[in-house]
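Hello Y.,

Per our agreement to keep a running log of every chain we model this quarter, I'm adding this entry. I've kept the format consistent with earlier entries: sequence first, then predicted structure.
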Amino acid sequence: MAQLRQDYSQFLARDVEVVVVGPEDAKAFAAYFQKESL
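Predicted structure for the entry above:
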């Protein structure tokens, strides 16, 4: 995820949407994204 954060502007420039999928629920994802400033 750290690499994605570093290169996020390049994804945006190419009009790419990034989707993250995992076994956690929405609350756990939200907490992780907030903690990691993603």
